[in-house]
Amino acid sequence: MTRTERRPADGVEQSLATSASRGAVVMIGGQAVRVIVQLAGVVILARLLGPTDFGLVAMVTAVIGIGEVFRDFGLSSAAVQAKTLSPHQKDNLFWINTGIGAVLTVVTFLLASPIASLYGDDRLRLLTEVLSITFLLNGLSTQFRADLGRHLGFGRLVVADAVGQAIALVAAIVVGVMGGGYWALAVQQVGQAALVLIVLVIVTDWYPRGIHRHAGMKPLLSYGVTVFLAQMLNYVSRNVDSVIIGARFGPASLGLYNRSFQLVMLPLLQLQAPATRVALPVLSRLQDQRDRFNAFISFGQTTLLAIVGLMFAFLGAQATAVVSIMLGEQWLEAVPVFQILLIAGWFQAAAYVSYWVFLSKGLTKENLWSALVTRPLTIGLILLGSLWGVYGVAAGFALGLGITWPIALFWISKVSDVDAKRLFLNGLRMIIVFGIATGASYASTLAVPADQPLLHLAIGSVALLGMLALEAAIWPRFRADVLQVIGARRYLSRARTAPASQASDPDAPSASASATSTDTPEPTTRTEKE
To answer: Which residue stretches belong to region Disordered (predicted)?
Structure first.
């Protein structure tokens, strides 16, 4: 079978605007369910397990997690940019990802003893051997997930992730209640990978067949290699902190750091992943239409940073109350680290838009060169910060991401026609707006007793929203941002009836596109530290 997969002409498929709009709604609804499940997991498991339990698992995942980057090898991202993708190419991609996953499972199993020696803790040997199976499971699921993303099957993706996550959490809780300690977290990771794979196989319309020698894989592999190398640098820069803390300060300190990081990543990844799944297909189709591309990516950035800013401003201002309620009194030592990592998380979200540009325009080599400059800088700052303990590591990580953001924007301004100045000003505006609101929320609860965390949250949220409302009233540009976020669905659907001349207006953009290029899956950009 040699038929290539092409995007139907306009009028045959639903408009891109409708697909993007519907996809956004589905993903937001699905992510809401996932957030509820993850919040339940954070709250319950933090009370069943201690910092050492989380630290032990984090020690292993920080080292072997680099295998996830190898396992994907940039091939799901290669499919994002491919203008055509034949069934034979899809089959080959499946077998490549599966083969890499199988090899990584064997290699990781054999490296279990050296990993335990690295940290000086023999408990990590068996734990590493058990967790190694996740590489094979994730390798099998990669192209099923990519196929759903390519055909905008967001609803089925959400179902697979939510079902796997919920059942795995229940299993982890059972093991934790039975006194299984850190094995509860191992059961959660392996169980989730297995369950997601099962559901994906059931809900996906495509099934792989044999290996095809003449399928024309070179362009896909070439693209994937450059994405892989950039992702490798990205992973190392974002996980070297865990390795350093685990090796120098022990599992208890790493457990505190890991839970702080988890509280930051919990809301952030629930926004970044679905935003990418919706935005990347649209941007790939608009890659040759400058005004519409700039308008859409500015809209996506503003929406992402507004939502992230609102959440992180509240979490940062009321960090003590949040940690007390979410994790319990025994975790209050993690509050300063949590606040520093919130800053890092915001800059990670701000820089993410550059990643969208690199991938959607096929600028993988430029993405790699950008990573070669920024990631070693972050690693160096983390190593330097470790001289001041766990707080220094967190500060080095945040500073590294803070520097990466403007460098990445400068880079895309040099290699593409993207309006980087507009993106920088959007981000700067959000820093100012939410920085002021954070200060107002924090100040509003200074007189509230520390043993009243719920009262802190209530008063702090009112103060935060009140200050944001005041800023919107006196700052027209921020007011326009708020209205744009509120009207996101209408904004995405505007192209359904808009004439071409209107769609090219950067201040009234359209998400629809003429039949030019790409059906797209999601990229693999895992950064969550389990």
So the answer is: 497-530
Rounded to whole angstroms, the Cα distance separating 209 from 457 reads 54
Per-position b or e across 110-128, b if 16+ CB within 10 A of its CB: ebbeebbeebebebbbebb
The domain spans of the chain are 49-216, 251-498
- Kindly state the tokens that stand for 306: 């507004």
* Spatial distance between the Cα atoms of 523 and 78, rounded to a whole number of angstroms: 8
Residues 339, 323: Cα–Cα separation, whole Å: 11
In single-letter form, the type of residue at position 71 comes to: R
Q: Which residues pair with 5 in a beta bridge?
A: 85
DSSP category for residue 332? G
pLDDT averaged over 10-residue windows placed end to end, the chain, 530 residues: 42 47 54 73 84 85 70 61 67 84 88 87 90 88 74 70 87 92 91 89 79 68 70 72 82 83 79 71 75 84 89 93 85 90 92 83 80 86 90 92 91 88 92 95 92 92 95 92 74 43 34 32 37
How many C-beta atoms surround the C-beta of residue 333 within 10 A? Answer: 14
CA distances 259 to 51, 338, 393, 438, Å, are: 8, 8, 15, 22
Contact assessment for residue 417 and residue 402, using Cβ atoms and an 8 Å cutoff: no
**Cα torsion angle, 242, 109, 166, 520, sign:** positive
Q: DSSP characters for 431-476?
A: HHHHHHHHHHHHHHTTTS-TT-HHHHHHHHHHHHHHHHHHHHHH-H
pTM here?
A: 0.67
Residues ≥6 apart with Cβ < 8 Å to 249: 389, 390
The pair phi, psi for residue 116, each rounded to 5°, is -60, -40
- Neighbouring residues of 499: CB distance < 8 A, sequence distance ≥ 6: none
d(CA 185, CA 131): 10
Gyration radius of the chain over CA positions: 23
Phi, psi of 13 (to 5 degrees): -100, 165
Largest CA distance in the chain: 71
Q: What is the dihedral of CA 67, 68, 74, 75, to 10 degrees?
A: 110
Residue 323 neighbours by CB under 8 Å, 6+ apart? 263, 331, 332, 334, 335, 338
Nearest 5°: phi and psi at 5? -90, 120
188 within 8 A of 171, measured Cβ to Cβ: yes
Which one-letter DSSP state was computed for residue 416?
Answer: S
Q: Cβ(157)–Cβ(145) under 8 Å?
A: yes
421 to 157, 408, 416: CA distances (angstroms): 35, 12, 13
**CB of 80 closer than 8 Å to CB of 142:** no
- Report angle CA 135, 30, 101 to the nearest 5 degrees: 10
Q: At residue 10, what are phi and psi to the nearest 5 degrees?
A: -60, 140
Backbone angles phi, psi at 351, to 5 degrees: -80, -15
Q: Estimate the crossing angle of helix 112-119 against helix 87-110, to 10 degrees.
A: 60
